[in-house]
Amino acid sequence: FDVHGAPIIGNDHQLKGIVLVFHDITELKKLEQTRKDFVANVSHELKTPVTSLKGFTETLLGGAMDDEELRLKFLTIIAKESERLESLIHDLLELSKIEGEQFQLRWQKLKLESIVDEVLVMLEEKALQKNVSLEFEVNGNTTIEGDPYRLKQVIINIVNNAVSYTPEDGEITVRLLEETETVILEVEDTGIGISKKELPRLFERFYRVDRARSRNSGGTGLGLAIVKHLSEAHKAKVTVESEVGKGTLFRLEFRKERYEDNKENEDQID
Ligand code: ADP
């Protein structure tokens, strides 16, 4: 509590009482803590690849360069860590843009089916390398109102996760299903799954069930935070069902038409 006090003085200049105002600042404190945690997380996440880049460069300069095998090994690590750093900075900038007050979606009529097609082409190679199959089923007309660029980001993050967290020979099925007022997108995998305990925290920034696995798959821990924000901006409902060792199902329900209050910003751009 934040407490302010003021005396009540009577006409006879005597102290009659004191007014105390108790201000509940629990929410403010929580917000402040979240901000602090975020800065600490970002610093940590940035520091890890930089330390590794510095270490391997110094080792190379210190003589390892003369050994052909070591040179190749260390340069490969340096290239991978630079890429990680690049994705992290990219995701951080995206998240800060999406969370910013100026952020606006560029609404238009679009076909979800075409966006999913593009995403599957992008991720085909990654799935193939693990012999993971990518099936796509469409039922009905998948036209909705939304921001195609942002929806592609959402779908990439979810399908990319499905590929990352599904071991060799697994299966991923993407489904689009038209309902009366919505179009449902489902991404189902036969991967490692997520326990009930972890599910509520999944969409937090930097939350990972297994940090090492996420790092290995090139994850930044920000993908689902981005998904959450963009889905909320589209007024889409997101649900996750999962069973450890069996697989995971992400379901997004998109409204075919945007809410009236979203229409005010029709012609503005972000
Ligand atoms: P990351 O970059 O680590 O993948 P995300 O925000 O995209 O970060 O996801 C957060 C965490 O949720 C992941 O680290 C992973 O532990 C878990 N996760 C996301 N999608 C799946 C999935 N399809 N199967 C199992 N775990 C998943």
From TrEMBL:
Keywords: ATP-binding, Cell membrane, Kinase, Membrane, Nucleotide-binding, Phosphoprotein, Transferase, Transmembrane, Transmembrane helix, Two-component regulatory system. Residues 41-258 form the Histidine kinase domain. It comes from the Bacteria. It is found in: Cell membrane. The keyword Transmembrane helix applies. Its main location: membrane. This is histidine kinase. The lineage of its organism: Bacteria, Bacillati, Bacillota, Bacilli, Bacillales. The chain holds residues 330 to 599 of 599 of the full protein.
